[in-house]
Amino acid sequence: MENEIQKKMYEKAYGYAVYLLGLKLRTEGEMREKLRLKKYNPEIIEEVLKELLANRYIDDQRYAEVYLENLKKYKHFGFFGIKKKLMEKRLTPDIIANILNEGLNEAEETKIARDFLRKQKAGIEKQKLASRLASRGFRSNVIFAVLGNPLLED
Q1: Which of 10, 40, 58 is the last residue of a domain?
Q2: CA quadruple 68, 55, 53, 48: dihedral sign
């Protein structure tokens, strides 16, 4: 009897997980959290995740690569802004570090900062622009590269 109940719960959890993946791609951490919020048994959650990983329905490394490229292309975030976004997706620290080291060098970040500045209104003072760049997670050396040192100017 117990085994039959476990099997039905597993099938229900797996069906829910596949349904969620049909809506949008998710990371292993996001999927674990969604299943946990539905109050599935931790053992069932682990079995479902093991199956999803085996079938390659979830691939955090690939997800992170695609997500980074989309952030670089369509959004204007710097290193720390992108790192925060990746952390919000519940990716492991190892994957985040590898993706950022391989996929976002300082030259690319500087180009993203310049693109962001081009979209800003003319006449904004450098300190305000520096603040906007910093709030989007750009590193200080990138801000200085695109603006000079706004704190030294009047």
Answers
A1: 58
A2: positive
